[in-house]
Design goal:
alpha/beta; ABC transporter transmembrane region fold; Rossmann fold; 3 domains; six-stranded mixed β-sheet; elongated
């Protein structure tokens, strides 16, 4: 397994781990001694009719059984605590690592794969660690101990055991070599199942609206059948190797009975020792079967450990400086200087030669054709992605020189795709500021034109929202999202087409409220409707990742053909209705 990241957990829990192993070994030693005691009871007690001897050694066997049970209870308690704590710590550290990822990192791994690594892969390693403290270590100790005890009883007969072990070792090695790649594929197939399922649940309303159940069932059937096929392939290998191990060991038991019987007939072997030998052969069989199971679990855990290791090894593509520049009293002057951006090296530029500025208190509106790069541009401001070339500055400070926390604390974002969390409406608004008072929550809700519909609910601001705010309309979700951003009192406010689902009158009232509430805030507004941008102090027109026009409405109507096209395509529907 990958020990580079597991070493810290090994060091953290090694004392408790060794305590569990100590009790496990004591339990195993008791199991190993009992067949020898039993042979003495038969050969020295039962054979001679000495009941005192039988009762004495029988009492010792009972005592050792009781001590073994106590050791097993302690070992189970310690192993359960250690494995659960280890799993919880690993899962939490992995979650924190993913939280620190840039969008590039998340795009690389994919959401579904990260979910599988957080759940199934962590469980595989946790189960293996639990098994290590329960039966996995016991198996080799029991197997080796049984061979040693067999040699003490009868060295010649013990040679049968020495003949069995190498054959089984070869079988196990073949199992390991063949199985590992298959179990790695199983985890990847599980990623695909989770991906399809997650996509379906996220878009279930669209699926229902277009009645595409057959299509979705077929998609799921393909990935599910793929998972089934690969899993069956792995299980078939296990189904072949486990019986082979059992067959080899059982052949050894038959040989013990054969040669033991011959020895008993000529008086060279006592019946008690033959029974003890059979017990030791059974223990060896148990040990080898468990070790085969261990290796199967090890293969899965190793594959999972490497997948988790890939996440821990991944370097954040967006780095902050060791000594970032503190931003105190920031005003919100925003500048893009010859910015170029592409998502991956070698791919085409999504943004080219972006050069503009926005003053504190100014509203900069961005409009353009679909796919022009508007949302990509504003994703660069809070450093969800880093520029490929050029600089972005806030108050003449390169944002790469500012810590993530300080930079994002100054920015309020209303994303194009609104996401609300399970909880009350008040809780969702206070995501922007957990210390906000009820009065502040109500104030920003009024500015966002959300107070009215919130109070129409029986529970008001305490109304419980399902996952993603499923019990709200699109416009209601957008308004709560705006309130959530406003309560931060941001220096820079980014609105990414955040009023597309509200009516024109409500949108106008929101814009009016924003202007009064955030007089000194730099506002970046992306919109599809031209009426949303016409009043802005500066309008930036984009097409195919480039700025093709910049100025106020009147200037663009004279000089920018694309702006004119957008205006003429919408003017009849919206402008007259607002008397602009």
């Amino acid at each position: 397994m990958n020990k580079s990241y597991l070493s810290k957990y090994i060091n953290r829990y090694k004392k408790q781990f060794f305590i569990a192993l100590t009790f496990l070994i004591l339990e195993t030693m008791g199991d190993l001694i009992q067949p020898t005691i039993m042979s003495k009871i038969i050969d020295n007690g039962v054979k001679r009719g000495d009941m005192n001897y039988v009762l004495k050694l029988g009492g010792i066997m009972l005592l050792m059984t009781a001590l073994g049970a106590i050791c097993a209870v302690v070992r189970n308690i310690v192993s359960s605590r250690v494995s659960q704590s280890f799993g919880a710590d690993l899962r939490e550290d992995l979650y924190i690592k993913i939280q620190d990822f840039s969008f590039d990192n998340i795009d690389e791994f994919q959401d579904a794969s990260l979910i599988t690594r957080l759940t199934n892969d962590v469980n595989q390693i946790q189960n293996f660690s639990h098994g290590m403290m329960r039966v996995f270590v016991k198996a080799p100790v029991l197997g080796l101990g049984a061979i040693v005890m067999a040699f003490i009883l009868n060295p010649k007969m013990a040679l049968i055991l020495l003949g069995v072990v190498p054959v089984v070792g070869i079988v196990i090695a073949l199992n390991l070599k063949i199985s590992y790649p298959i179990f790695t594929e199983i985890q990847k197939a599980l990623d695909k199942v989770n991906g399809v399922m997650r996509e379906y649940l996220a878009g279930i309303r669209v699926v229902k609206a277009f009645n595409r159940f057959d299509y979705e069932q077929e998609r799921f059937r393909k990935v599910n059948q793929n998972l089934k096929g690969i899993t069956l392939k792995g299980m078939r290998i296990t189904a072949v190797f486990n019986p082979v191990v059992a067959l080899v060991v059982n052949i050894g038991i038959v040989l013990v009975l054969w040669f033991g019987g011959l020895g008993a007939n000529v008086g060279n072997m006592e019946v008690g020792k033959i029974m003890a030998f059979i017990n030791y052969m059974t223990q060896v069989l148990f040990a080898l079967m468990i070790m085969t199971r261990v290796l199967n679990m090890y293969i899965r855990a190793k594959a999972s450990a490497e997948r988790i290791g890939e996440v821990f090894k991944a370097e954040n593509t967006i780095l902050t400086k060791d000594a970032p520049i503190p931003i105190i009293g920031v005003k919100g002057q925003l500048e893009f200087e010859k910015v170029y951006f592409r998502y991956h090296s070698g791919s085409r530029y999504v943004l080219e030669d972006i050069d503009f500025s926005a003053k504190p208190g100014e509203t900069l509106a961005i409009i353009g054709t679909t796919g022009a790069g508007k949302s990509t541009l504003i994703n660069l401001i809070p450093r969800f992605y880093d520029v490929t070339e050029g600089k972005i500055k806030i108050d003449d400070i390169d944002i790469k020189d500012i810590s993530f926390n300080e930079l994002r604390e100054k920015i309020g974002i209303v994303p194009q795709k609104v996401l609300l969390f399970t909880g009350s409406i008040k809780d969702n608004i206070k995501w922007g500021d957990k210390d906000a008072t009820d009065e502040e929550v109500e104030k920003v809700a009024k500015i966002a034109q959300a107070h009215g519909f919130i109070m129409s609910f029986n529970e008001g601001y305490d109304t419980y929202l399902g996952q993603g705010g499923v019990n709200l309309s699109g416009g209601q979700k957008q308004r709560i999202s705006i309130a959530r951003a406003l309560i931060k009192k941001p220096t820079i406010l980014i609105l990414d087409d955040s009023t597309s689902a509200v009516d024109l009158i409500t949108e106008r009232n929101i814009r009016k409220g924003l202007k009064e509430y955030l007089k000194d805030t730099t506002t970046i507004l992306i919109a599809q409707r031209i009426t949303s941008v016409m009043d802005a102090e500066k309008i930036l027109v984009m097409d195919r990742g480039k700025i093709v026009g910049i100025g106020i409405h009147e200037e663009l109507m004279k000089d920018c053909e694309i702006y004119q096209d957008i205006y003429h395509s919408q003017i009849g529907k919206e402008v007259h209705s607002l008397d602009v």
